[in-house]
């Protein structure tokens, strides 16, 4: 039985074929953003003052439907920057998340933070698109790619100067990765078939990673206690989208999240160790 991921990937491949026919690679490479220097996502997420936050701009998702009807990506991005986001994630998948590459370009024009293109990358053409519209990094989802495809896209991204957030959902997906090629790894706590959230998945996977890899906790993070728990598992950063998008002022929500997370971490550090 086909999953929602299968449907998204099929839709993505069809859309990429259409865009290739409409906009050749040479046209993308002529955009000014394609030649601009990129910012390091990995470096931005290693913060001396505690865990970093990748704050996300998205209008909708398959699990939540429309999250934010009044959606102004550039305004949201500026509010996130003011609230000390380390980096931003911008959804560009159009059919299931109502995103677009134009949203990415709008955010690039608004802020100078590292930008992650959040999409379902299955073709190197999408990496060139990401670079041409101002992204500094892209998401590569292990569940969407076989090991050879993952390796090829990691190498192609590096050749373009793009960082990569490699996303996994299960231990078996880590087994298929060449970790020597991975700088930033995210654990998505949401099951792609049931959409249920299991934060404990991050604990199991983070424990397996070399220390040099930046660890990102993704999905299902709603409270400071969730963040403190994930920090205890080894998370260097959190990627938070839906929670912020549901608030009247996403930037203010990010500031409150960071403040409350710092308090929760301080409180946890004062607790006696469990024998």
Overall tally of domains: 1
Strand order of the largest sheet: 1-4-5-6-7-8-9-10
Name the CATH superfamily assignment.
Answer: Aldolase class I
Structural class: alpha/beta
| Percent of residues in beta strands | 15-25%
Low-confidence blocks of residues: none
Question: How many helix segments?
Answer: 14
CATH architecture: Alpha-Beta Barrel
Distance between the termini: 46 Å
Helix content: 40-55%
At CATH level 3, the topology is TIM Barrel
- Indicate the radius of gyration in whole angstroms: 18 Å
Task: Report the major sheet.
Answer: 8 strands, parallel, barrel
CATH class: Alpha Beta
Which series of helices and strands comes N to C?
A: HHHHEEEHEHHEHEHEHEHEHEHH
What is the approximate shape?
Answer: globular
């Amino acid at each position: 039985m086909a999953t929602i991921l299968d449907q998204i990937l099929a839709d993505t491949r069809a859309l990429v074929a259409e865009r290739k026919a409409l906009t050749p690679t040479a046209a993308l490479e002529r955009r000014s953003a394609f030649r601009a220097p990129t910012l390091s996502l990995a470096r931005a997420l290693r913060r001396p003052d505690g865990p970093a936050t990748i704050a996300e701009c998205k209008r909708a998702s398959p699990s939540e439907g429309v999250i934010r009807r009044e959606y102004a990506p550039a305004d949201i991005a500026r509010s996130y920057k003011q609230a000390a986001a380390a980096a931003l994630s911008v959804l560009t998948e159009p059919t299931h998340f109502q995103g677009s590459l134009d949203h990415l370009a709008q955010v690039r024009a608004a802020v100078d933070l590292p930008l992650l293109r959040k999409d379902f990358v299955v073709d190197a053409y999408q990496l060139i698109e990401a670079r041409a519209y101002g992204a500094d990094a892209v998401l590569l989802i292990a569940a969407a790619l076989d090991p050879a495809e993952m390796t090829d896209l990691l190498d192609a991204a590096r050749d373009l100067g793009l960082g990569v957030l490699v996303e996994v959902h299960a231990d078996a997906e880590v087994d298929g990765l060449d970790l020597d090629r991975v700088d930033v790894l995210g654990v998505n706590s949401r099951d792609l078939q049931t959409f249920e959230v299991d934060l404990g998945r991050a604990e199991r996977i983070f424990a397996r990673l070399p220390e040099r890899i930046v660890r990102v906790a993704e999905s299902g993070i709603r409270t400071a206690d969730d963040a403190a728990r994930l920090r205890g598992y080894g998370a260097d950063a959190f990627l938070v989208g839906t929670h912020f998008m549901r608030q009247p002022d996403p930037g203010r929500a990010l500031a409150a999240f960071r403040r409350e997370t710092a308090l929760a971490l301080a409180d946890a550090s004062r607790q006696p160790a469990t024998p």
